[in-house]
Amino acid sequence: MDTLERLQNILAQRGIASRRGAADLIRDGLVKVDGQVITEPGLRVPPDAAISCRGTPIPRLAEQHRTFLYHKPVGEVCSTDGQGARSVLESFSLFKLRLVPVGRLDKDSEGLLLVSNDGALIQQLTHPRYAHQKVYEVEVNRTPDARQLEILRSPLVIEGYRIRPVPVKHCEGRHLQFTLSEGRHRQIRQMCEQAGLRVVRLKRISLSGLKLGALPVGHYRELTPAEIKKLLTPVQPNRTPNAKKAPKK
C-alpha cells in the first residue's frame, strides 16, 4: 500500500498554511525534507520524513486544533510575516500554536476572518471546489443607479476570467451587500470599478452561516465544537467552475 503523501498536503494538514500557501512556501525554497530543500509541492514523501519550514521542524504529532473568529481591522494583512504591516497573527502571539489565516481579506478590508491550525478545516474552507458563501457589506462612493446595479449583477470579466453573476443586494443609499461563493483577488473592488463605483468600506460579515455579529474590531473568540462541526460538514462540491477563462479578442 502506498503511504506516500504530497508535501503540500502534509503542510496543510499540520496547520502550517493552506494548500495554496504551502505550495508557495515550497516553491520559495523554505521547506526541507530530511535536510534537503524541496521546491516541488507535489513531491510525495513518507509519513516518517523529517520536515522543516523556515528552519523550524514540523512535529509529527498533531497539535491541539484551535480555531478563532477574528474581527480583522483595516490596516492589518493576512500574511504570516506582515510584509511591512501589522499581521493579523500578532493578536494571537500568546498562543504557542502554528496558526494561519484561513483565506484572505485585503489590507483595506475588515470583518470576519478565521485563524486556525486545523489543517482539515483550512482545506475544507479554502478548496475552490466547495462553494462556501461569504457575505460582505459594501459602501461605495455614491448611490448606484439601475444601470450600475445591472453591471454588478452581470457575468463580468475579472483578471481574464468571466465570473458567474454575483448576488448583489442594494440595501439603501450607498450601501450594498455581495454574496460570493468563490472570490477572486479583490473581486468586489474590481466589480465596482467596472460599474463606475469606488469602494469606500468593505466588511465581511458572514462565512458559511458563521456570523461576525457584535464582536468588536480587533477582538476574537474561539469557535465552539458545534460551529467547527458545521464548517467541516461537506457542502455540495462546486462542480461547475465559478469562473471561466474569457475568450481572447
Which secondary structure elements does this structure contain, and how are they paired or packed?
Blueprint: E1 5-6, H1 7-13, H2 19-27, E2 31-33, E3 36-38, E4 44-45, E5 51-53, E6 56-57, E7 67-72, E8 100-102, E9 110-116, H3 119-126, E10 134-140, H4 146-152, E11 157-158, E12 161-163, E13 168-172, E14 175-180, H5 187-194, E15 199-207, E16 210-211, E17 220-222, H6 225-232, E18 243-245
Description:
- This protein is α+β, with helices and mostly antiparallel strands and 249 residues long.
- It has two domains: 53 residues, Structural Genomics Hypothetical 15.5 Kd Protein In mrcA-pckA Intergenic Region, Chain A, CATH 3.10.290; 187 residues, Pseudouridine synthase, CATH 3.30.2350.
- Strands 7, 8, 9, 10, 13, 14, 15, 16 and 17 form a nine-stranded mixed beta sheet that branches.
- Strand 15 and strand 16 form a beta hairpin.
- Helix 1 packs across helix 2.
- The longest helix has 9 residues.
- The model has no long low-confidence stretch (mean pLDDT 88).
Give me some keywords for this one.
alpha+beta, nine-stranded mixed β-sheet, 29% strand, Structural Genomics Hypothetical 15.5 Kd Protein In mrcA-pckA Intergenic Region, Chain A, Pseudouridine synthase, 2 domains, 6 helices, 249 residues
